[in-house]
Amino acid sequence: MTAEATSKKFNIDTVANAEATPGQALPWAELGLKENEYQRVEEILGRRPTGAELAMYSVMWSEHCSYKSSKVHLRQFGDKVTEAMKEHLLVGIGENAGVVDIGDGWAVTFKVESHNHPSFVEPYQGAATGVGGIVRDIISMGARPVAVMDPLRFGAIDHPDTARLVHGIVAGIGGYGNSLGLPNIGGEVVFDSVYQGNPLVNALAVGVLRHEDIRLANASGAGNKVVLFGARTGGDGIGGASVLASESFDDAKPSKRPAVQVGDPFAEKVLIECCLELFKASVVEGIQDLGAAGISCATSELASNGDGGMHVELTNVLLRDPSLTPGEILMSESQERMMAVVTPENVAAFEAIMDKWAVEYSWLGEVTGTGRLIIEWDGEKIVDVDPRTVAHEGPVYDRPYHRPEWLDGVQADRFAPEQPADLREAVLELMASPNMCAKNWVTDQYDRYVQGNTALAMPDDAGVVRVDEETGLGVAISTDANGRYSYLNPYEGARLALAEAYRNVATSGAEPLAVTDCLNFGSPEDPEVMWQFAETVRGLADACQELGVPVTGGNVSLYNQTGGVAIHPTPVVGVLGVFDDVARRTPSGWREDGQAIYLLGTTADELDGSEWANLRGHLGGQPPALDLSAEKTLAAILVNCSRDGMIDAAHDLSEGGLAAGLSEMALRFGVGARIGLDELCERDGIDAFTALFSESQARAVVSVPRSEEVRFNDMCTARNFPTIRIGVVDTENQALDVQGYFNLPLDQLREAHEGTLPKHFA
Amino acid sequence: MTISNNETPLIGGPQPVASNNEDSPLNGVKVGVVTFPGSLDDRDAVRAVRLAGGSAVHLWHGDHSLQDVDAVIIPGGFSYGDYLRAGAISRFAPLMEQITAAASGGADALPVLGICNGFQVLTEAHLLPGSMIKNNDLHFICRDQRLRVENADTFWTSEYAQGEELVIPLKNQDGQFVADNYTLDELEGEGRVVFRYVDGNPNGSRRDIAGISNAAGNVVGLMPHPEHAVEAGFGPDSSARGEVEVRGGTDGLGIFTSVLKKLVG
Fold first, then answer.
1. Exposed, middle or buried, A3 (CB in 10 Å: 0-12/13-18/19+)?
2. pLDDT tens, A92-131?
3. Does the beta carbon of B6 lie under 8 angstroms from any beta carbon of chain A?
4. A115 in catalytic set
5. Residues of A whose CB is below 8 A from B247
6. Integer CA distances (angstroms), A351 to A217, A237, A284, A346, B7, in order
7. Over the stretch A689-703, which tens digit does the pLDDT of each residue have?
8. What is the pLDDT of residues A539-580, one digit of tens each?
9. Contact at CB, A582 and B233, closer than 8 angstroms
10. Would the CB atoms of A269 and B37 count as touching at under 8 Å?
11. Looking at domain B17-264, which of 3.40.50.2300, 3.40.50.880, 3.40.50.620, 3.90.1150.10 is its CATH number?
């Protein structure tokens, strides 16, 4: 079909037509705009918008794209950053992803994003395109993606709908990530009925680049050409950002499946290699991936970040479906597309690289000095806007919020557990429980080897990848969140999530450097949810400042609720750390007979919100107390131990406490240990049950070679950090022997630990 | 010298040696590693050749020249997305015509190793018999797999002992080797089953077959990934000899040293 014929068929709503027909009604409500927002569009334009303009504003002003409800709070991440924290920051919040200097001219870019709503509606494609989207963010910074991780949260493990989601989401992540050749090096799998109608599918990606290779999303230089390349534009994902990601689910409404995008990992793999070759040949001036809001977002953001305007002929867009209207083309979220700005001299070189990789491209228009984003359809003007009003000057809401009245009651409801009659059975029950069980049924569906640089992956504390083969320079990443802690106290919950990720990275031996976050919440229109959100951001920003690690980027996912029921506030926090040489990374399991096992930190009676309380169906009280200066000291000790070769294994204690920590360390390499709790109980004034199941923070277990014990103890004493010897590695007996309490053969522990997921899903 | 992370094959023309090892007596041997669109473990195969002491050369699927390489590795991945059938489109690549011709000449022919997707390509190209279908549990599987070397007389296994066991990562979606009984009997009878799964068949492959060769022994295909067990610190957690070292397993290195030593003679 020719453009002319298409134009006639659609009866295109041009700017001239909009001026001539001011009274014409437009479907702004169906596109997700509020009445006052629509009025604001009319004010900005001084007339009614055209259909195409309305499409652009509606997607770009959606919660998902504009952060209109969260912006006023997110500012704290910038406001609370000190000069010292910026030391390693090459690119901060606001670009596609933050970039951190890791030394020797190398930089790392990383970010975590949500793809929650699409993954509930269409699990396989939703999860797959979540991976695809975050990977394109990484590419568009100029980096080669080197690893992914996926923090996942599902409803109750035995709910009939959970298997549908687990199978689809895990297969989608694997199907896409494995085909891209990206090792999946960690993440989380959590089951809780609060996520039943709103699973959380967060995707993190890491990329590496040389400092000089950083690329930004801006369109500068009048006369430079604007090109769209990669997959063709189709009818998938229309309204993904506005009507799917920015509204709550409601049983009464029809399925939103057509708003989910469909992924083609092969196209993305080719796009990665092709973009890296473009960067290497220096033929692009600015680049932007197409994600939420598609061409609307790419054109308005590139133009608005640049120094002028942009002129685009929309009929030049290569289509999968010729019947798409201009508005649909502007809103389509078809995957595997990129937009770039190329100088006229580089056009031929650009085209040669496209041809080599057999990637389709079309020249859409050029950068102008007009300050306007003009989009034409077959020569007729259908969009004429100031791009800043679309991309950056959307509505900002300081939504009302207040502390929920129910919270006092919840916090007063302390957990008063009955002592389990048999601690051995209790450990088995804990380690077989949905949240503490082995996740290898999931992670064995992901490639953790590809690229040949994976130095640690699950089940170790952090994923570790080598960046430079010559020196061993590398990075560690961990993501953590605890929705129950955040439910009990959102301010502390956010700080606890950061502390755990920070501790995990340090436990692997890496120096924590930077933070990314994915803030998953219910509806911001609920003042109680909004309070949880505000408290979370305040807590996270404060804790980042105290630990000296900046937030470099991330994502907010709101409206995670079905009907009136919101998820627990779930701030997923990712911490990136750096290794001078990944060869010194510390694994999470002991191996050598006779090594001493030490517990770092102190244990208090802190079972509120714990996994054990969860198993007993209790959620109340306050989460464990957090002392960030103790976390800092512990991290410094763990990093030093790695550097000086003082420990052979380390594992942080968090969910499931010491019971989980010891079990996981023994199972890591199938090596047993003899443990004594008496001294610990006496020192900390607790009983054996509390010692095993409390979730007190700033703790880790390490195994120390005999030859290093003096040095290790001296270092902890010098830093005034409490440490206590609790046992010895025992390769003879394949058991976790907690003397005076129980002897648990590792075979039995492993069977319980590894049996749960296959039982439900295999 | 190592290749940088951003190395990509060039278009046509003579290829630079992607990596070599100046101190190695084997560095005169040039091993080509083919990149198709969608190849994933190509740079890993290049690294394995270098760690084994040889010189690696990137080969581009669309080229018509084998660049005078002494051996070829077709690496793992999802060439062309494997949307039709794994390896089904790649076999028609111009470079595959060259490889098929060079590999078919009997005992002196070009040694070719197909790993995972490369094995699938070799069966599609009829350089090896049989075919690969989806794993019997229908999932992608990534795990450290125990194998037994059933034939240590091929170009790619001569550094191992007959019957030696190895631990090598396995990662695939379509890894179930199938063939008719006549072909299977023939493979067994001629000693062309090169690797067999032990301690559990991961994907339902007929007769636990993990890798096979052609009659001349120069063409070998296997599903597990030896190039991911060549460097201490980045391999599987253990080796078949029972040592447990964090990602310390290097049992796959022998595959690459085998071909280098054979070719140096």
1. middle
2. 877 778 899 999 999 999 999 999 999 999 999 999 999 9
3. yes
4. yes
5. 454-456
6. 20, 28, 11, 9, 20
7. 999 999 999 999 999
8. 999 999 999 999 999 999 999 998 788 999 999 999 999 999
9. yes
10. yes
11. 3.40.50.880
